[in-house]
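Much of what follows relies on a compact textual record of a protein's fold. Think of the row as the fold of the chain written in a discrete alphabet. An example makes this concrete, so a full record is given next.


***
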Amino acid sequence: MIYKKLKVYHPINRGDKIMNLVNIVVAVYKPNAEYFKKLLDSLNNQTYNKIAFLFRDDSDDEEEHKEITKMIQEKITKFEYCIYKNECNLGSNKTFELLTKSSTGEFIAYCDQDDIWEKDKIARLLEHILKENAVLCYSNLSIIDDNDNLVACSFKDVNKRVKHMYGENLFSYFLRRNSVTGCTMLIKADVAKKAIPFCHKYYVHDHWLTLYASTQGTIAYLNKPLVKYRIHDNNQIGASMLVAVNSREDYINNKLLKENNKYEYLLKEFKFNKIQREKIQAMKNWTERRKVFFEKKSVKNTYFMVRSLREDWQLIIFELFINFAPDGIVKKVFSKIKS
């Protein structure tokens, strides 16, 4: 472990203003040096000055670790930091969980290794989360390519289906969907720590943290692109969408069945209150009924799907289409979606 003056902090008073410590936690795995240096520059240029960085290298390579350490030491000059190294490759979910455990601040911001942050990102998110008395706050993002060229000014420009949700009572929504990208998130540290262990089997870290935060209080949203999210060959938005789904049968077995198993797992392995468990069970029942629609075409099952349009009209229209369309067309549709 390598550190630069890292210690436990408590909120401090500067006049009438309380300065909360924000831990920016960065999971690193064999980064592209050019991208990583640009990220580090943007982190070092943050205008909020009560920041401590926690880096955790998941590369499982001594030479790689030396290079990562060197870049951090050269670029992070204004803030304190600590560099950890995993003994073996654990994956990003587990790495972010360990970073969450190690945090010492009042708030945690999660960071990927190849984006570029706007200099006022932490200042803006912290101001908004305190103003809204929220447990989690996230922002919009812009999209850049591998040469830093602007591709889109908003996440919605590349993902038309996304709906940025905020407010209270969002547990049912986040059970199945997510509108929070991890690199745009600021969360209360005590809430994030209570979310441990993460549900590695079915949720990526940002989705799990958002789902848990929705049980603890208000989710806030700032419609400002505070991160330049980099798209390149190894980092595509929506790259995991319908993974291993190439046909109607795949959709049943690798999408609906997996979704159903997820809800069973949540009910069995995690402690939720009575109302939350009822919502999980209701979502499980809804998924099972959709699965039955694919397994047995009938007027009754089709009527159920039509009634379900109010739940998620885009999804239901899609499922009606792929169940009744010829196999060849369905396969072409899945291929087009993933291209």
User: Anything to note?
Assistant: DSSP finds twelve helices and twelve strands in the chain. Residues 248-338 form one domain.
